[in-house]
Design a protein that fits this description.
Blueprint (H helix, E strand, L loop, with lengths): L30 E4 L5 E7 L2 E7 L2 E6 L5 E7 L2 E7 L2 E6 L5 E7 L2 E7 L4 E4 L5 E7 L2 E7 L2 E6 L5 E7 L2 E7 L2 E6 L5 E7 L2 E7 L8
Antiparallel strand pairs: 1-2, 2-3, 4-5, 5-6, 7-8, 8-9, 10-11, 11-12, 13-14, 14-15, 16-17, 17-18
């Protein structure tokens, strides 16, 4: 050993019967590693970071022993890109009261929690939505409406929880259509100049 800089050609093998094979410290970090063409390098025990890695392809790559789960960290313009046999990622809080799988099966996100499956809002809080909230599928609020739905060619458009109205709807054929499950009765609302146009096995309509 020496306090002078040293260079060794060839590989270096270290083996210790106790604790660590290699333990090092320095004012800038515990270690610095790079490949021969400098396309990837890493600082270990550097500042307040355990590992700081950089690479021309990605900052870091991790996988388990059978490669059934893999992840790139700092990959292109993506923070983390991950794959796994069950899901791309799994997240939960310390109390395990909320958890989410990301990239699971044919679904983007599968989430559950003690208060709800998910909560979404925009940056200024003017629109927010709870998903799988208690016994309700979706519960939404917004400055203009609770929800807005339209088809791809904009021929049908519906606002739910709109102003002082429960539902406000427009469509190229009618404002709304309602039908029972066996098709024995159905009705159009705001249809071709008529308020209601209805048909049923027993009668077209019943009002009381």
């Amino acid at each position: 050993t020496s306090s002078d800089d040293q260079t060794k050609t060839g590989r270096l093998f270290l083996e210790s019967p106790v604790a660590y094979g290699l333990q090092s410290s320095g004012p800038s970090g515990g270690g610095y590693f790079l490949d021969s063409d400098h396309s990837g390098y890493a600082y270990v025990g550097s500042g307040n970071y355990g590992i700081r890695g950089y690479g021309s392809f990605t900052g870091g790559y991790f996988h388990d022993s059978d490669a059934s789960g893999r992840a790139y960290v700092a990959y292109g313009d993506v923070g983390i890109q991950a794959w796994g046999l069950t899901a791309g990622g799994y997240f939960y809080d310390s109390a395990a009261s909320g958890s989410a799988y990301v990239g699971v099966g044919h679904r983007g996100i599968e989430a559950q929690g003690d208060s709800g499956g998910g909560y979404f809002l925009d940056s200024n809080g003017s629109g927010e939505c709870y998903v799988a909230d208690g016994e309700t599928g979706i519960r939404c609020y917004g400055n203009s409406a609770g929800g807005e739905f339209e088809d791809g060619n904009n021929s049908g458009h519906t606002w739910v929880g709109y102003g002082n109205e429960g539902i406000y709807a427009t469509g190229s054929t009618a404002g709304g259509r309602f039908e029972e499950s066996d098709g024995s009765g159905y009705a159009y609302v705001a249809y071709n100049g008529q308020g209601i146009w209805a048909q049923g096995y027993s009668m077209g309509g019943y009002f009381e």
